[in-house]
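Justification of resources, computational component.

The compute hours requested in this renewal are based largely on the per-chain cost of generating structure records like the one below. Each record pairs the submitted sequence with a full structure-token output. That output is archived, and it is also reused by downstream analysis tasks.
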Amino acid sequence: MSGFFSAEGKFFSITSRIIDMIFLTILWIIGCIPIVTILTSTSSMYHTTVKCIRYDRGKVLEEFKEAYKKNLKQGILLTIVYGIAGTVIGLIDYRVFGLMQSRTSAAFILAFGMLIVTVIYLMNVLWLIPVFSRFTNTFGKIMQLNYAIAVRQIIRSIPMFLILIVSVILVLASFPLVIVFPSLAMLLISYLSEPGLHKYMPKQEEDNGDWRYGFK
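The structure output for this chain reads:
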């Protein structure tokens, strides 16, 4: 029992990680304040969660700041592009929903088509967070890679969406949970997204200690 409460014990380790997750969530909220930096802040939170919380490498503040600064400009541009695309798709969905009241075959076909477009868009947004946090490339290449991963990892996307939905529901039910659930959701999502990312990373034949490949 004494070992459990020691500095190297499970209690200290779990408590330390919870504190780090709360601190990381605060950094994420602050980083999202300009709105156009939402992707930059969220991808930085994902990076820091995987590296610091999951694999216990580095310091939360240092890793978040470094990732935020590195991805700031491109993250703003991607946020604007995906934000505009989402707004357009949302407006079209709203219009199509109105047309469905006519109950015509054309309206239902159009609605089905927009459903596919909306799902693809949501999967792209979901995967953009881990993809942007891990890969460095041009704006166009990032979008291409993100699309390729999103459409090929549909099975992983479903539980990832469920994690986000459950997190939002719990936060709405008890708002104080917002202080920890964003980083907790990223941690849970990483167990699904990381294997998907590894397929598009250079092969590592041996354990070289690189946390990005899951090596401890």
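The chain has a mean pLDDT of 90. Residues 10-201 form one domain.
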